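Ticket 4471: requesting a sanity check on a complex prediction with zinc ion. Repro inputs:
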Amino acid sequence: MAENLNPVLQAENMVKTCSIWRALEVIGDAPILLILESIWMGSARFGKIQETTGLLKALLSDRLKKLTHKDILTKRNVPGLAKTTEYALTPKGAGLFSTVLMLYWWERKWGIAPARKDLLVRHENCGSILEPQTVCGSCNKAFELTDVDWKPGPGVGWMSPSYSRRRNQTKVQTDQPSLLRGSVEIMGDRWSALVMRAVFTGIRRFDQIQKDTGAVPNTLSSRLKALTDSGVLKAETYQHAPIRNEYFLTQKGYDYYYIIMMLMIWGDQHFAAPEGPPVLLRHKSCGGDLNPYVSCHSCTKAVTPGGVSIITE
Ligand SMILES: [Zn+2]
Ligand SMILES: [Zn+2]
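Returned structure tokens:
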């Protein structure tokens, strides 16, 4: 995390230690999410990934390199075909599957991205169209967010945000069908995801969100506008001269938390401080550790990367 610290932000801002921040440093990028989706849907070779994502060659090549370097993907020779290589998920990369499932759930629930309406995920165990749900690892029951307790974990603290590279939001526009086109706009933009994290923790005002995320004012204004426009946040004016707003989650925004939670669990597994995770989650109903995982609403079995197939209607 120490590479190329931005000296200005380092001096002025500290953000809460957060596995989500670290996870977003890897996957908070729209092209990367589209690549992961493509591989999840069965693409392995460069040409196929390019065709399904619609990304430019140079951009795709850059992100594949990054994903391989970060141990999300592995590059290997195709057996029997000299000089032909393909990409596959590492175990760490496969661990993102739960986050991807919840992105898919959220998009279906909120009817986003008409481009992917004909694509469906089937759960092979029961044969039904998959409706993913997050369940508690202790009692195996589905939970509401209101039924979850949060407390600081052993790794809680403050850190200076670091940036491997100053990066502009990469707009990806293709006509390729995608399961995740709408949620990629939030998750694929690190700032938007961090703004959501701040609001989830009860931070509502501009300057406080700025402090929590480390975003510069312009960046923050544009993200708050985009998130309000897309209906995950709503602004309420608490002061009129000059106008000051507080930001609240809509139901659509509240549901987004299931995605952030699964990303956090993944981040904890791979990027937490040596002392442990920064946040501990407890399921109030059963009293056990939440350790959430994703199961199928129909058969209640855990959903694994190999246990689903993509079908077209
Ligand atoms: Zn439980
Ligand atoms: Zn099932």
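Notes from triage: The chain is about 40% helix and 20% strand. Leaving this open until the requester confirms.
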